Amino acid sequence: MKSKIIVALAGNPNSGKSTIFNELTGARQHVGNYPGVTVERKEGLCRYNGIELQVVDLPGTYSLTAYSEDELVARNFIINEKPDVVVDVIDSSNLERNLYLAVQLMELGVPLVLAFNMSDLAKARGYEIDINKLSRFFGARIVQTIGNKGTGIKELLKAIVETAENGSLNRERKEKETLTNDLSSRVSIRGARKVTLTINYGRVIEEEIAKIQSLLEADTSIANRYDTRWLAIKLLENDRDLLKEIKSPKIHKQIEKSRARIEEILGESAETAIAGARYGFISGACQEAVRSTIEIRHTISEKIDSVVTSRFLGPPIFLGLMYLVFHLTFTLGNPPMEWIENFFGWLSRTIQRWWPTGSESLLKSLLVDGVIGGVGGVIVFLPNILLLFLAISILEDSGYMARAAFIMDRLMHKIGLHGKSFIPMLIGFGCSIPAIMATRTLEDRRDRLTTMFVIPLMSCGARLPIYSLIIPAFFPQAWHAPMLWTIYTIGIVVAILVAKILRVTVLKGESVPFVMELPPYRMPTIKGVMIHMWERGWLYLKKAGTIILSISILLWAITTFPRLPAEERARFEKERLTVQAKFANDDKEKTARLTAIDNAEIEAALEYSIAGRIGRVIEPLLKPMGFDWKIGTALIGAFAAKEVFVAQLGIVYSVGEADEESETLRQKLQNSYSPLVGFCIMLFMLLSMPCMATMAVMKRESNSWKWALFQLIGLTIIAYMLTTSVYQIGQLLKIGIG
Question: Model pTM greater than 0.90?
Answer without folding.
Answer: no
